[in-house]
Amino acid sequence: MRFLLSFCICSCKYAFIPNAGQTQVMFEAANVRKLLDDDPGNSEYADMEKELVEVISLTEELLATAKQSEDSGVDVLTTVGAYPGFHHTQEPLNMSDLSDKFPVGTKVQAVWSEDGEWYDGTIEAVTPNGYYVCYDGWGNKEEVDPANVRPVQEGVVNALLEAEKEAEATKQAIKRKIAQAAVVDIQSRSLPEKLRIDPNDPEDVKIAKRKKIHAFKSKMRMEQHEVTQNKRQNAWQQFQTSKGRAKKIGFFSGRKRESIFKSPEDPNGKVGVTGSGKGLTDFQKREKHLHLKGANAESGED
C-alpha cells in the first residue's frame, strides 16, 4: 500500500512538471502493470493503472499546451489554471463587503451546523471566512459561511404561540358573552303587523305569512333557550370559581383533607384502604357505676 501511495504522490507532483516527470510516471505505470499481471484480480492495481494512464494523458496535454504557449507568448501557469482539476485556490472574501452587508450587532438568521436549521442570531464579528454568530436564546456561537446567513424574515411568527393567543382570546370572548347574556333577559316581541293574516288576503299570501310566522316564533324560542343556557352556564362557572374561596364553618371545617391513596404509616398497611394499618380502636372496659345513697345521706346529716 505504501508503494502504491508513493506512485500516486509522485504522479501528482510530476504532473505539474511535465518535462521532469513524464518519464517517471511512465516508469511507475509500467511497474503497476507488472504487478497487475502477477495479480490480475487486484482491483487496487487496476484503479492505480487507470489513474496513471490519465496522468500520462494529461501530462502530454500540458506539454502540448506549454509548447503552444511558448510560441504565442502565453504563460503556461495561466493555461494550467484553465483546468478545473488543478485549480484549488479560493478567492479570499472581502471583509469590507461582509461588514457592509451585515454589520456587527445585526439581527440575522443563520444555519446551525449541527442540524442545518435556520435560527435567529446576532452578528458578533466579521471573519475572513464569514460571520461569527451568536444564536439568540441558545447561547451557542460559531463561524458561519456568508451563504448561510440571511436577514430576519419578516412575518415569520411562532405558529404555536399565535394559536395559544388566539385560543385564549376566544375563551375570554366567550366568557364575556356568557356574562352579558346572564344579566339580559329576553324581550318578548309581538308579531309584526305585516305578518298578521288578513281574512281578505289571497291564499298564496296567507301560506307565505304562515311560514314567516312559524319562522318568527321558532327564532323567539331559540333566543329564549340560549338565554336560559347562558344563565345556567354562568351560574355554574361562578360556582366553580367561588367554591374554593368561601370559608365554610361547621363540622370537619378545620380538618385537613387527606388523599385515600396516601401511603399508610404502618408498613403492613394497604394503599387505598381507609384505616388500613391503624389497627382496632381501643375502648375502656365498661363497668357498672354504683351510686352510694347511704354515703350521700350521712354526708347530708353532718
From TrEMBL:
InterPro entries: SMN_Tudor (IPR010304), Tudor (IPR002999)
Record localization: Nucleus speckle; Nucleus, Cajal body
Annotated source species: Actinidia rufa
Any GO molecular function: RNA binding
SUPFAM superfamilies: Tudor/PWWP/MBT
GO biological process, one term: mRNA processing
Domain of life from the UniProt record: Eukaryota
Primary localisation category: nucleus
Region (Disordered): 253-302
CDD domains recorded: Tudor_SF (cd04508)
Location of the Tudor domain: 101-159
Database matches in Gene3D superfamilies: 2.30.30.140
Alphabetically ordered keywords of this record: mRNA processing, mRNA splicing, Nucleus, Spliceosome
Taxon lineage: Eukaryota, Viridiplantae, Streptophyta, Embryophyta, Tracheophyta
Signal peptide (UniProt feature, chain positions): none
Biased composition (Basic and acidic residues): 255-268
Function summary: Involved in spliceosome assembly.
SMART domains named among the record's database cross-references: TUDOR
Family: Belongs to the SMN family.
Protein known as: Survival of motor neuron-related-splicing factor 30
A single Gene Ontology CC term: cytoplasm
